[in-house]
Amino acid sequence: MYTQRNVEFLQIGDTAEKTTANYPDSLNVGEIGVFNAQGVRLTEATAAAAEKFILATKLADGSILRSPDFMSASVKSAKRLVYTASTNQIDCLGFDGTGGAIEVLNDNLYKVHIQVQELLRSNTDGRKWKYGAYQSSPNATQEEIAQGLHKSLVLNFDREPEKFIIFDMLMGAGSDVAIAGTGDVTFTATSTTISAATDIDAVLTVGDYIRVGTTATDPVYKIVSIDATANTAQINVPFQGTTGTVVEAGLTSVPSAALAALAAGVKFTGQELEFKRGKLNYEVARWETQLLDFGTTTYNSVQAATPGSGEINDVSQMEWFLIGNEGEYHREGFSVIDQPRSTVNIAVAGGGYSMIRLTFDGKDVVSFSDNVSPQVMSIAVPATTPNYALDATADDITDVLEVIAFGSANGNLDLG
For every residue of 367-395, which 3-state class applies, written as one string? Predict the structure, then answer.
C-alpha cells in the first residue's frame, strides 16, 4: 500500500489466479483481494453488510500490502479507467504519403520554427525553440526543398542529448522501381553508410533515392556516393531508424530522372522520452510549429500526442510519489541505500494497467473535532485482466466494489 499521507492510496496488482479463502495471507502473489475489517473475504452477497473494508495484495516475498480500514458508507464515487496506450505526435510538412505538397518558391528562404514543450523536464520555462531552414535554388523542386529542410532539421536536432523527434523525408511512390539484384540492405542507426548483400549498384545510382519500404508513407534517403567494390553507399543524412537489415523485396528505388515531378515532404514523429523514476517525469513529446515564407505549403497534424491511461511509467511515477511521504525514500542521501520498493511490473500483461479509483470522505479526530477530507483509493490491475478482477469471475473485486459503491454489481467497474 502506497499513500500520500491520508490523501491518496495505491494498490498495485499483477497477474494471478483468484483465491476464495479468508484473510490476506491466503492471497496468491500479485492478487488483490477485498476483505472486511476482521479479514473475512467479502463477496457480492456479503459486501453490502460490511461496515468497513480493506484491500490487500501479496508481494513476491510473501509480505502483505494492506490498506487502511475504509468506511463503506463514506465512498462517494467509483470509476474505472481502462488502459489506453499513449500516442506520439505526428505532423507532416508538405506531402504526407497520401496528399499535400510544398509550394515551390525559387530563391526563397524556408524556415521552420518548432516550439518544443518540455514542461517540468527543464530548468527553463518549459519551452525550447528549435528550427530548420533551407534556401531554395533558382530552379527549385519539391524534392530539393524537402531534402534541404530534412537535412537541416536532422542535423539541428542531432545536437540534443535526447532524440525527442524523428524526421523522415517522404516522396510520392508513382515512379518507384524494384532494386532487383541488390540483395538485402543493412542500415545502421545514426550512420550515413548502407551496405548491400549482393550488388549495391545493380539498380541504384548516385542521385537516386532508396525507399525503406514500398509505399509513399515510407521514408526515403538520397544516394550521394557508391562504393561498388565494398558494396556500400553513402546517404545524405544519418539513418533515422533502428539498426537492421531489410530484405530486397522490402525496398524500392526512386530514380533521379523522376524526382522533379514528385511531391515531397517531411514527417515529424515524436519519440518516447527518457523516464527515470523520481528524477525525470513521465511525459510525451509535444511541440508547435510555425512556418515562415512557405506560401501555400500544407502542414498536416496527423496524430496528437496523448499520455494514455495506466502506462507503466505513469503508474511507476505515481507509486514513487505516494511512497515519498512514508519515510521509505529519502530524497537527500545515497540512492543505493535509500531505494524505494516497487511493485510495478515493467513487463506487465497487456502493456499497462487499468485503474479503479474510489473517492470517499475520510475522518480524523484532531483536538476533539472531526476533520473530514476527501481521499482517493487507486487500484492498478494489469491491462490483460486477471480473473480476480474479471467481471465473468464470481465475486471478483470489481463486483464486490460495485456492491460497496453502488449497492449492486452493476458492471460500472467492469475491466473486461
Answer: CCEEEEEEEEEEEEEECCCCHHHCCCCCC
405: enclosing H helix or E strand: helix 397-406
Do 318 and 351 contact (CB within 8 A), yes or no? no
The model's pTM is 0.88
Phi, psi of 189 (to 5 degrees): -55, 135
* Cβ neighbours of residue 337 closer than 8 Å, sequence gap 6 or more: none
Best CA proximity match to 267, nearest among 79, 38, 100: 100
- Which strands, in side-by-side order, build the sheet including 286-292? 127-135, 109-117, 286-292
Please give the single-letter amino acid code of residue 93: L
Q: How, if at all, do strands 8-12 and 369-382 pair?
A: parallel
Map grid coordinates 539513418 to a residue: 239
In this predicted model, what pLDDT tens digit does every residue of 173-197 receive, in sequence order?
Answer: 999 999 999 999 999 999 999 999 9
Q: Are 144 and 261 in contact (CB under 8 A)?
A: no
- Please give the full DSSP string across 197-261, using - where no structure is assigned: SS-TTTT--TT-EEESSSSTTS-EEEEEEEETTTTEEEESS---S-SEEE-GGG-EEE-GGGGGG
**Contact assessment for residue 316 and residue 355, using Cβ atoms and an 8 Å cutoff:** no
Tell me the domain boundaries of the chain: 2-84+310-406, 90-303
Between the alpha carbon of residue 394 and those of residues 14, 53, 231, 389, 401, the distances in Å are: 19, 19, 64, 10, 13
Element of type H or E holding 268: strand 264-270
Residue 261 contacts residue 173 (beta carbons within 8 Å): no
Return d(Cα 40, Cα 285) in angstroms, integer.
47
> Could you report the per-residue pLDDT of 19-50, keeping only the tens digit for each?
999 999 999 999 999 999 999 999 999 999 99
For 149, the 3-state DSSP assignment is helix
Give the amino acid at 97: G
Q: Once rounded to an integer, what is the mean pLDDT over residues 159-184? A: 95
